[in-house]
Design a protein that fits this description.
7 helices; two-stranded antiparallel ribbon; 202 residues; mainly alpha; two-stranded antiparallel sheet; rod-shaped
Length: 202
């Protein structure tokens, strides 16, 4: 058990018993717990001193001739403002320091679009590689419009090729699924290559 504190003659404090609302008591306890080692007695003492030094009615400050009260009130307000500014400065400094130390995420590289080359148009000509994953409307109507059937697992009707090979009046070219090239262009290309080979060997 702690020994009672000894005071000089005439300096011993008075012990008081006061009644306050329970809600005010709980709020005072929370305030003291956040500002240790402050005690509840110190909080009540500070409140009494502030109350006694500060007029209850703001109009009393204007009408009062006691400049000491005004000066002390200004000092208290200035001290409180400076303390809050110091806290804000410390918080902002910590936040800026954390942001400067955080690694900058690298942006992912944009994927290059796939392009297919057309042998009949030369090296500089390309076609967009947009292989469909489902049957196109032109394919689903081949039987109804009388278009000659074709293997839909290997071919599909797509954009008209640069050579203008129109597949039986559909306004589209028959393209291979694995390379998106015109089937008629490939057929004519192979025929020309075979004829050139025969002329070379003859």
């Amino acid at each position: 058990m702690a020994r009672p504190q000894k005071y000089a003659e005439g300096e011993a404090p008075y012990s008081l018993t006061i009644r306050i609302p329970r809600e005010l008591y709980e709020e005072a306890k929370r305030y003291v717990s956040m500002r240790l080692p402050m005690t509840l007695s110190e909080l009540i003492t500070d409140g009494l001193r502030l109350r006694l030094k500060t007029p209850a009615d703001p109009r009393d400050i204007i009408l009062s001739d006691d400049n000491t009260v005004m000066h002390e009130l200004q000092e208290m307000i200035q001290t409180a403002v400076q303390a809050e500014i110091g806290k804000l400065h410390t918080f902002m400094g910590s936040a800026v320091d954390a942001l400067t130390r955080a690694p900058v995420p690298e942006s992912p590289a944009e994927p290059m679009p796939e392009r297919a080359y057309d042998d009949n148009e030369g090296e500089g000509t390309t076609q967009e590689a947009s292989q469909p994953t489902a049957e196109t409307p032109a394919e689903s109507t081949t039987k109804q419009t009388g278009i000659p059937p074709y293997d839909t697992t290997r071919y599909y009707l797509g954009k008209l090729c640069p050579s203008g090979h129109d597949y039986h009046g559909t306004g589209q070219s028959l393209l291979r699924r694995h390379n998106q090239r015109c089937q008629e262009c490939e057929r004519l290309g192979k025929r020309a290559a075979y004829a050139a080979k025969r002329q070379t060997t003859a």
